[in-house]
Write a structure and sequence with these properties.
The complex is a heterodimer of chains A (108) and B (114). Chain A is mainly β and 108 residues long. Chain A is globular, with a radius of gyration of 13 Å. In chain B, the strands form 2 sheets. In chain B, strands 2, 4, 5, 6, 9, 10 and 11 form a 7-stranded mixed β-sheet that branches. A 4-stranded antiparallel β-sheet of chain B has the order 1-3-8-7, with no helix packed on it. The chains are: A mainly beta (108), B mainly beta (114). At the A-B interface, strand 4, strand 5 and strand 9 of A face strand 5, strand 9 and strand 10 of B.
Chain lengths: 108, 114
Amino acid sequence: QKEVEQDPGPLSVPEGAIVSLNCTYSNSAFQYFMWYRQYSRKGPELLMYTYSSGNKEDGRFTAQVDKSSKYISLFIRDSQPSDSATYLCAMNGNQFYFGTGTSLTVIP
Amino acid sequence: DGGITQSPKYLFRKEGQNVTLSCEQNLNHDAMYWYRQDPGQGLRLIYYSQIVNDFQKGDIAEGYSVSREKKESFPLTVTSAQKNPTAFYLCATSSLGGGLETQYFGPGTRLLVL
């Protein structure tokens, strides 16, 4: 079993839709949870990070961690064409573990 | 201008040739990492270093070598022993301790085989 599982998509939504991206993980020792956005042929950009369980909001983005279910989510409200990218989840125990990424396309 | 720089942006390797990818950071981060990214496979860890003059193998170190002579620099050499080097290579850094451990990535180097 992989440490982190992420649905690769692709996910295609109309502009203005709410997008939900998810990851599951197996290691209950993970404490830090991160979401990265990666545009084509660019390095991943850190979008949000959370420590332990709970929600964190930053503009149109909300990161949610449910440690009891070993499940993390990233919600994007009022999605824009500029949000079209691959989104990677990541978490940190004694080393970093990354999901394989979900490809998102927001259609104008 | 703070951050992580990687050079070159594109690199072409001939058969039997060793090539070196550069990674420099001015974030004063202790740890540096090299990942390889292939389509559909996510990020795979090649090497990492938490302190100058020390580094550890990651999951796919065979055919690669690194050095960490300065805190700011962590070059990766792709040797001729790496039979399938075509990939997107990403350098990352993180600060250790202080209660916040996230990774920051450079812009990447795309390596192609001629």
